[in-house]
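USER: I would love a firmer grasp of how sequence relates to backbone shape in proteins. This is the protein in question:
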Amino acid sequence: MRKSFAVAASLATGIVLSASCLGQDSKPRPPIVTDPVYTKPQQLVDMDHGRRMNLYCRGSGSPTVILDAGMGDSSISWALVQPALAKRTRTCAYDRAGMGFSDAATRPSTAGNIAEDLHALLRAAQISPPYVLVGHSMSGLTVRVFADRYPNDVVGMVLVEGSHEDQSVRGWAIGEPGQQAEWDAYLKDARSCVDDARRGMAKGTPAFAKCVGDDDPRFSQAINEAQQKYAVTPKWQAAAASERESVFYASAQQARATRKDFGAMPIIVLTHAPYPKGKDETQEQRNQRTLLWEDLHTQVAAMSTHGINIIVPRSGHFVQYDRPEIVIDAVDQALAIAKEQHVN
């Protein structure tokens, strides 16, 4: 189920995802995520008048770490990170509206709406602040919007390959013309998956191949089957399409409007680099895109006097799968700083 999101990420700023991050290595490897908790909902929290969102919490302690997955992804994104963090403090992952085992979204999946949903979910589940927010990819925008809207609730942020509000505008300026048109064509194709889901998508059909994709070799067969059951539904396809439509437009604009000074709140950004050259780009274009990605992340880290952008080698876009120890260490750092500030 990762194929379409690889396309999305590569169109963002020309980022090329590694084969290991996409589960496409030439040599078969045993699955690295087998926990059966990801085959079913864990805690379906009634948010408002029967609309439920799936929440998975482990551990105890404060601050609570809140894990938000990337575009089209679910709480399984943190399977290699959450168990270790739960030994230190309470750690909660969740499925956004329409994603995973959560009920369908009732409005566009913009960063603002997602942040509002997350705030309501945590209140309904009685998960009290303070929070350290961890966001991957698209959720790099969401956690910043959340921290801006609910400043008294957040004491730290960790952005794992986080999206930036200017990545499309500046990224499309690098390379051949027509990248925005290519992205818009991709969105149109993604919206057609919603209609395909309403008509029904069976495994082995062209619609399934386009809209769902192959099994993810990182996951057990049982997890892949559970993912495919919700991925063929209109609610999942609609939410996935809405997230794709929002990330470079509405969500980017909402993030652009947030504050740029978070004081001494720890902000740790993880950036995988260097990036391999794509087949449709020159080495100079690749170098420009790599520098752009690092610069955008450094700008986010600079929003705090306790901000840092850490370059992560030997990783793809999914640092939490390729180098989970780096993500765990970054969250530990944010927790330590937040606790020290709270004591003082």
About this structure: The first strand starts at residue 43 and ends at 48.
